[in-house]
Design a protein that fits this description.
Layout lengths: L1 H5 L17 H15 L15 H17 L8 H5 L3 H8 L1 H11 L1
Helix pairs in contact: 2-3
Amino acid sequence: VMSLKKLGVQFADDSVTKVQQFDADLIIDAVVHCLVAIDPDLEGKYSNTLPESMSLRFRMCSEIADAIQSLGFKSEIGYQTLLYPNETDLRLVFHPRCYTEILKYQS
């Protein structure tokens, strides 16, 4: 949580201290911040907030999941990981080692 705050993720509630407390809106904001930290060219490509429409949410989360995969994320990730999170998947997505591996892959 502290690393995400350093990237600029805004937590509406200061009591959020664990990944299992993240809802889909917070996950999207955090993942977009991480993507931009890894690849600054992605700035502005993805919204940090989910749209109201379920079909647009599905499309947006699918595109973000594809972007994560294209950066070299080795675990399986899809729209469901972002829209319907579970703690295990989120720990993989936000694990610092994951981003270290991505950065190595890009070098």
